[in-house]
Design a protein that fits this description.
The chain has an eight-stranded antiparallel barrel. Strands 6-13-7-10 form a four-stranded mixed sheet, with no helix packed on it. By secondary structure, the protein is mostly beta strands. The protein contains one helix and 16 strands. It folds into two domains: about 100 residues, Lipocalin, CATH 2.40.128; about 80 residues, Immunoglobulin-like (Sandwich), CATH 2.60.40.
Length: about 200
């Protein structure tokens, strides 16, 4: 009985011990790295030419991968809906969490099933058609989840966009001591983070 209990305990801890370490990818002016600590915490770094991101959080080992949750947890997008607009058109007003405007792309999903993608938007996007929802992507590639309109009469949407990377139950697969990261766009990347230590 003691042997079975001991084997069960070892079976629980072995997968976690195997993932602890530093995984990284380097390519010219791009560097991405995640350090998985023994206490189920992680430190994530990404550096590009004009971008330096650091995120901390918790991870869980699940089958063939890890689930990442950043800390403190933030909403990727906060939207305040109202029915009042200045121009009679539907307005989407976008700012970051500090109240600053920035360039973004927006995918507009309409009631009739059509989708329009608009690039190089700044501060306010207008449309005459009835919206079902939208997604916003900043110039760094960070994307919001699809926001579905809640109010039937809403025509004005004040959007607060989180400009930092947020991990929320994000699954990264592990294969042969390599991690397949998920990009800002929510898709698995073609490169791998290789265990370096």
């Amino acid at each position: 009985m003691k042997t079975i209990f001991f084997l069960c305990i070892i079976g629980i801890y072995i997968p976690q011990l195997n993932v602890v370490g530093v995984y990284s990818f380097n390519s010219g002016k791009f560097h991405e790295e995640i350090e998985l600590l023994p206490d189920n915490k992680f430190v994530y770094h990404q550096k590009r030419e004009f971008l330096d991101i650091k995120v901390v959080g918790n991870y869980k080992v699940i089958n063939d991968g890890i689930i990442l949750d950043s800390y403190p947890q933030r909403d990727k997008i906060i939207v305040k809906e109202s029915s009042k607009t200045k121009h009679g058109k539907t307005e989407i007003r976008v700012k970051d969490k500090f109240g600053s405007s920035f360039y973004y792309s927006v995918d507009l999903f309409f009631i009739d099933g059509t989708v329009i993608s608009l690039q190089n938007q700044y501060e306010i996007t207008y449309t005459d058609k009835t919206l079902l929802g939208f997604t916003i992507t900043d110039s760094k590639g960070l994307s919001s989840p699809k926001y579905i309109i809640k109010g039937g009469n809403s025509k004005c949407f004040d959007v607060q966009f989180e400009s930092n990377r947020v991990f929320e139950n994000e699954f990264w697969q592990i294969k042969n001591k390599e991690i397949i990261p998920i990009g800002f766009d929510g898709l698995p990347q073609k490169y791998r983070l290789v265990k370096t230590r």
